[in-house]
Specification:
Elements: H1 3-15, H2 17-23, H3 29-50, H4 52-55, E1 61-63, E2 69-74, E3 77-79, E4 97-101, E5 106-109, E6 114-117, E7 131-134, E8 140-142, H5 151-154, H6 162-166, H7 168-189, H8 192-203, H9 210-228, H10 234-240, H11 243-258, H12 262-270, H13 274-279, H14 287-292, H15 296-310, H16 317-320, H17 348-372, H18 392-411, H19 416-419, E9 421-430, E10 446-450, H20 453-456, E11 464-473, H21 475-488, E12 511-513, H22 519-522, E13 529-539, E14 546-549, E15 555-558, E16 563-566, E17 570-571, H23 580-593, E18 601-625, E19 628-638, H24 642-665
Parallel strand pairs: 9-14, 12-19
Antiparallel strand pairs: 1-8, 2-3, 2-4, 4-5, 5-6, 6-7, 9-11, 10-11, 13-16, 13-17, 13-18, 14-15, 15-16, 18-19
Helix pairs in contact: 3-9, 3-11, 7-8, 7-9, 8-9, 9-10, 18-24
């Protein structure tokens, strides 16, 4: 790695092994002290390598309207504030937001343009009249539900200025390359400890030199630590030195979770360097480097300090190196040869090994930084993604597949009609081409394919679509069928109101909490919230295919006895009474996709509350009151995906229950006292 020091080490290993044996027999007190000082600063390197993950995140945004807003409309949601719209906007979609200003003007807002309608009396979301286009001269409105401020929102690095934000990470990585080359060279030609101190001071003042200092520190400190570590501990010390870098990435995730303002976030991360600044002045030069430069007296002082810390006897370099009284070496080591980069390809054997090492390093870095720097786009928790390569999407696919297989087995049995499960084919359509043209569940459903151009002619407002066959499960029929199976297997159903889970103890050994929104009280879960859904049940027996808009708000699902038209997603709304205006809007949107629905009859309104939370809660918890214990398996918070994943999550809950059973059956160890 560092040509000069490697050659020097080899020389002394071959000719002065007594020095190595004495100085670096193991990782003793002095070496441990230096090791952890240097390793601690590796945390800061890990932080600055990945700080841009949350520093430069680009939240959803739209053009700021040229005046005060009196009403906002998005799809079927109407509100008075633009901030309330973001929960309904899908990432990557170009659907516009409709606003009416206090002066009566009606504007359509998109992420990078805004359009003023000539007909100001029309508040219909879909509008085919004339409108004038304008740039976003008044700035942008950002979704601040996750990040209060980033460098993107601070300087509006979106639309025509988006390329500024995209340059942040490439610029940093280019600095990493320069830092590795520059500081690696300086450490060969000069002082290791001085370079370590210099790069540390730069790391404490981002973004001045942090791009070069991060990689410079990693290169130099690796050599510095290995020169102090003993032969027996060198492998362990060098490997685990980089585990502190990984800890730094965890600090990034933790800080990003609690601090959502970019400049406070950056100050907090930079403060990690402060403890090292207070200690780095104590770092000595390594005896190897001092001896190579003929600084024998300084090397002797370092050795004496090491011996004092390690509580062992020191040695005399003059005796080991056969120095005369004037300080010159009696047996001078041969002159250290200078090497160049070309010698890494001296012959086929060395060249092949060099290329293999480079390829391994390149592949490892490519995978690590691809996932780490894009953790906010992987789905699931942006913060946990810095810790885990496995994402919640994979778990959702598992649950979805297990549920699909379960329902598919029913539809192929004599129980299909009694269970209310049928096969249905249809289309999912998009107004713009999605980022992922093939969704994660494509290999689970039947006959998945992209829609043909002829099929898309049926939907002139849409440009892309999926065609597939899936399963429709009728809840009012399916749930009684499940209850019948439960009773047939000896299960007992009790109807009872409880205010506290402890009311079930000691009558029941284990409790599975599937109380949905009731978990706000029973489990003290403040993250659970209702998402109001309103649909229409109509008679339209000629409709055989389902149609679903990619937003998930407009859909047509033919069932066993009726057709379901939807829908709404009204976050935080507890109202269970049907809204006539919403019903009218639902019917209008569905008729736009399937005009024959204008002849539907026997319209009935249905309203329900979906128990939603940031993620499905599927975990064990041991409640304790004094000496009493009550194992609880929480299983709720599916939101609108309850039917689609219910059997898969039930299997997972069953596994957790079995773990609780095993614990209850295992006798407690008896005390020997």
């Amino acid at each position: 790695m560092e040509t000069f020091h490697v050659c020097l080490c080899l020389y002394f290993l071959a000719h002065r092994s007594a020095i190595i044996t004495f100085l670096f027999l193991s990782l003793c007190r002095y070496q441990i002290f230096l090791y952890f000082i240097c390793a601690f600063q590796n945390i800061s390197c890990g932080i600055h390598y990945l700080a841009s993950v949350f520093l430069s995140v680009s939240p959803q945004h739209t053009c700021r309207p040229p005046g005060n807003v009196s009403q906002v409309l998005f799809q079927d949601l109407s509100t008075w504030q633009l901030e309330d719209i973001w929960t309904q906007v899908s990432v990557g979609r170009e659907d516009h937001i409709l606003v009416q200003l206090q002066d009566g003007e009606v504007w359509e807002l998109t992420s990078c343009r805004r359009f003023r309608r000539d007909d100001q009396s029309s508040l219909d979301y879909e509008y085919s009249g004339r409108k004038s286009s304008f740039p976003c001269l008044d700035g942008y409105i950002y979704d601040r539900s996750k990040w209060l401020s980033t460098v993107v929102t601070q300087w509006d690095l979106v639309c025509n200025r988006e390329w500024f934000g995209r340059l942040i990470q490439p610029t940093f990585m280019f600095g990493v390359l320069l830092g590795a080359v520059i500081f690696g060279y300086l450490s060969d030609r000069g002082s290791n400890s001085l370079v370590v101190v210099c790069v540390t001071l730069n790391l404490a003042h981002p973004p001045c030199f942090v791009l070069q200092s991060g990689s410079g520190y990693l290169v130099v400190v690796f050599v510095y630590v290995t020169e102090f570590a003993g032969m027996k501990s060198r492998t362990w010390a060098s490997i685990h030195l980089h585990s502190f870098f990984a800890f730094g990435t965890m600090v990034v995730a933790l800080t990003g979770y609690f601090v959502r303002t970019w400049w406070i976030y950056q100050i907090v991360l930079s403060s990690v360097t402060v403890p090292f600044i207070l200690c780095c002045w104590m770092l000595p030069e390594t005896p190897f480097w001092l001896i190579s430069g003929g600084k024998y007296e300084e090397a002797q002082k370092v050795i004496d300090t090491m011996a004092k810390w390690n509580r062992t006897r020191s040695c005399k370099l003059s005796e080991l190196l056969s120095l005369d009284h004037d300080g010159s070496a009696g047996n001078k080591p041969s002159q250290v040869e200078k090497h160049t980069l070309s010698e890494l390809f001296y012959d086929w054997s060395i060249g092949a090994r060099t290329l293999i090492l480079w390829l391994i390093w390149f592949t490892g870095c490519l995978g690590f930084y691809t996932f780490s720097l894009n953790s906010v786009h992987l789905g699931g928790s942006e913060y946990l993604n810095l810790f885990l390569m496995d994402t919640p999407i994979q778990k959702q696919k598992q649950w979805f597949k297990e549920t699909f297989d379960h329902l598919f087995a029913i539809v192929n049995s004599a129980e299909a009609e009694d269970a209310g499960v049928i096969l249905v084919s249809g289309w999912q359509i998009f107004r713009s081409i999605p980022t992922e043209e093939v969704p994660y569940w494509a290999d689970v459903v039947l006959g998945f394919r992209k829609m043909t151009k002829d099929e898309l002619k049926k939907f002139p407002q849409h440009v892309f679509g999926h065609a597939f066959t899936t399963l429709k499960c009728e809840g009012p029929t399916y749930l009684p069928w499940l209850q019948k199976r439960l009773k047939g297997s000896g299960g007992l159903i009790l109807t009872r109101r409880i205010e506290d889970l402890w009311e079930l103890h000691p009558s029941f050994d284990i409790v599975v909490n599937c109380s949905g929104l009731g978990s706000r009280q029973l489990a003290g879960d403040s993250q659970i919230f209702p998402v109001r859904g309103q649909v229409l049940k109509v008679q339209a027996p000629w409709v055989k295919r389902f149609i679903r808009d990619s937003s998930g708000l407009t859909y047509i699902y033919p069932g066993v006895s009726n057709v379901t038209l939807g829908g709404t997603r009204q976050k935080g709304d507890w109202n269970l009474s049907p809204d006539a205006e919403i019903s009218k809007e639902i019917l209008s949107r569905c008729c736009a996709l399937e005009p024959s629905l204008r002849g539907a009859y026997d319209l009935r309104e249905k309203v329900g509350l979906r128990p939603s939370r940031p993620g499905v809660r599927l975990e064990k918890e041991l409640l304790a009151q004094g000496s009493r214990r009550l194992p609880v398996v929480h299983h709720y918070g599916h939101g609108s995906g309850g039917i689609a994943m219910h059997w898969g999550t039930a299997l997972e809950a069953t596994r957790l229950v079995n773990e609780c059973v095993q614990v209850l059956r295992t006798p407690a160890p008896k005390s020997k006292l």
